[in-house]
């Protein structure tokens, strides 16, 4: 095989600092657009972005030259810098330090996409913390959330 091939779907979840409801509906398109731009700048192919006031879900193909940690660091840092430079929110905008990143098999991309794009409806009945706990159980990870 003369060329390297890679196709790794990532479902990432990032939360606002302290889970503050900073991403109000009026600015949500701007937030999602900036996150998309940051991912594109990292040469990641973006499938979809969705979320609510305190967190965002992203589905993208990982650039094989980058680590997930590098990509998330860049999109969080670059976007929060852009938001604060333009005073997008009245309060200082910041993302939570941690993040979630989960691999998605090709056969589940459609289902994950539908889930991400239906965040508004989903969170009418499920809190972010309940969602977080479910992810930890589903992926067999320690549930170390505070509050």
How would you describe what is shown here?
39% of the residues lie in helices and 18% in strands. It has a single domain (9-139), classed as Transposase IS200-like (Alpha-Beta Plaits, 2-Layer Sandwich), CATH 3.30.70. Helix 1 crosses helix 2 (68-85). It has a four-stranded antiparallel beta sheet with strand order 2-3-1-4, sandwiched between helices. By secondary structure, the protein is of the alpha+beta class. The model has no long low-confidence stretch (mean pLDDT 92).
Write the layout of secondary structure elements.
Layout: E1 9-15, H1 28-41, E2 45-52, E3 55-61, H2 68-85, E4 100-104, H3 109-117, H4 119-122, H5 128-139
Antiparallel strand pairs: 1-3, 1-4, 2-3
InterPro entries: Transposase_17, Transposase_17_sf
GO molecular function: DNA binding; transposase activity
Pfam families: Y1_Tnp (PF01797)
Q: What are the salient characteristics of this protein?
A:
39% helix, Alpha-Beta Plaits, four-stranded antiparallel beta sheet, 147 residues, single chain, alpha+beta, 5 helices, 18% strand
Using the 3D structure, state the CATH architecture: 2-Layer Sandwich
The CATH superfamily bears the name Transposase IS200-like
Spatial shape: globular
Question: What is the CATH topology?
Answer: Alpha-Beta Plaits
Q: What Rg, in angstroms, do the CA atoms define?
A: 15 Å
How many helices? The count is 5
How confident is the prediction overall: mean pLDDT? 92
Strands in their spatial order, largest beta sheet: 2-3-1-4
Largest sheet: 4 strands, antiparallel
Low-confidence stretches: none
H/E element sequence: EHEEHEHHH
Strand content: 15-25%
- Ends: how far apart? 50 Å
Number of domains: 1
What class would the helix/strand composition place it in? alpha+beta
- The percent of residues in helical segments reads 25-40%
**Main CATH class:** Alpha Beta
GO biological process, one term: DNA transposition
Protein name: Transposase
Domain Transposase IS200-like: 5-119
InterPro entries: Transposase_17 (IPR002686), Transposase_17_sf (IPR036515)
């Amino acid at each position: 095989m003369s060329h390297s091939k890679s196709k790794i779907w990532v479902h990432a979840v990032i939360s606002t600092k302290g889970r503050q409801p900073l991403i109000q509906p009026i600015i949500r398109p701007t937030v999602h657009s900036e996150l998309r731009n940051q991912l594109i700048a990292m040469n990641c192919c973006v499938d979809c972005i969705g979320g609510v006031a305190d967190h965002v879900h992203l589905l993208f193909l990982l650039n094989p030259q980058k680590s997930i940690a590098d990509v998330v660091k860049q999109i969080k840092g670059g976007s929060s810098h852009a938001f604060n430079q333009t005073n997008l929110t009245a309060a200082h905008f910041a993302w939570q330090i941690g993040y979630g990143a989960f691999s998605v098999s090709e056969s589940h991309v459609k289902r994950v996409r539908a889930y991400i794009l239906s965040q508004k409806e989903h969170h009418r009945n499920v809190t972010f913390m309940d969602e977080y706990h479910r992810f930890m159980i589903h992926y067999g990870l320690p549930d170390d959330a505070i509050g």
